[in-house]
Amino acid sequence: MRLIKTEQDYRTALKRMELLFDAEEGTPESDEADVLALIIDAYENEHYPIEAPDPIEAIKIRMEELNLRQADLIDEIGGKSRVSEILSKKRKLTVEMIRNLSSRLHLSVNSLIGDYQLSR
Question: What is the dihedral of CA 10, 12, 15, 17, to 10 degrees?
């Protein structure tokens, strides 16, 4: 086992992980899979970073996960038209909305305070 330095190393590591994936816990193969997972994760974080969604996309994703409609957020945002304006990025979230949405949707405040562009 060695560090992943190239795309070929990465592909080789993924193939090896496929073989080790169902290794029985406590075996040398299981230990190898644990270490290999860390090495693969480090390489992916460096070469294939996944950016967090902007606050509005995070809200929409959570709404979908919870099977919520826009009308379900009226209490947190304030009025049907206000919810529409926020979700269509015509208006920015306020601090109060962020607090309310964080509590209702179980999203971290950090995921809601990021900047995003308003639509024109």
Answer: -70
Residue-by-residue DSSP string for 59-97: HHHHHHHTT--GGGGHHHHTSHHHHHHHHTTSSPPPHHH
| Cα gap 19→22, rounded to integer Å | 8
Closest CA to 4 of 34, 46, 32: 46
* Residue whose C-alpha is closest to residue 119's, from 95, 75, 76, 84: 84
For the entire predicted model, the pTM comes to: 0.64
The residues near 109 (Cβ < 8 Å, ≥ 6 apart) are 98, 99, 102
Rg of the Cα atoms in the chain: 21
- The pLDDT value recorded for residue 50 is 86
User: pLDDT, tens digit, for every residue of 16-34?
Assistant: 999 998 989 999 999 999 9
